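Reopening this one. Same input as before:
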Amino acid sequence: MDENKDTIQNDNKSSVEEMLLEVERRVAEKRGAPSESEARAEEQLREIKRRVGEIKRTHNGRYDDGEKKDKRPAIIILSIAFALFAACIGLFVWNIVKMRTYESDYVKMYGKVVDIKSHHSSDSGTYYYLVITYTYEGTEYTFTDDVGRKEFGHDDIGKRAQIYVNPQRPDEAVMVMSSGSTAIAYSCCFCFFCFAYAIGMMFLLGALGTSFLKRLCFVWGMIILLGIALFLLPWVGFPNSSFGEVFSRMDGAVGIIVVCGLAFLAMCADGAIMYAVHRCERGY
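Same output, byte for byte:
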């Protein structure tokens, strides 16, 4: 009984399919063959649709076969960039903590340069070290600055020098004129990060589809904002110091300014090129 039921259903299905085919054939006969102009118009329409599809695939960073471009170079370069950025942040925090210690735990005062000692080595040349005297709670102390400098002369003797004195041990003092090698290290990490980040993001945006607005937000603008942050954050950390004083104590600050300036010039050049390309495309 079930077999007869299945046979009847299959026969009905075949009959319906035959009827549909017959209806389609009769409709096609009544419609007739398209004229030559209609056929040409349809061919042009198909060509236009094909070209629009190619443009969309190109804009979205795809090949003609619909596969995405390889993003591995971008991922590798960005991984290096973020490793450099992590090192930059670590050195930056270490530098801030070190400088903050003098601001919070030591007493800021002025001493007097009474002598200059020089040390010459065949590898690094001649360095000068200041001998400074100061008076703390009625007692006079003398110390020699342990940071060598290249360009101090004997005419600096007798000038005042800003120093930090340890109140727990008044004979211990330091002359903090700059943040030292730590700031140079994180400035170098930041500079290399900017170059690697810009290259990696260009590769990534090229694979995903780029525009001037994306480059402005994710490449040039990001570099400039991070550079500004490296100047403002130390100033916030030292509320008792002026911005000029903090800036003068940041070794490597010039390098950060140069990198941010290059990013700004690249942003302007990128915008000018895109503006010129759009004008040419519009036929102006």
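So the earlier flakiness isn't reproducible anymore. For the record, Residues 60-67 have pLDDT under 50 and may be disordered.
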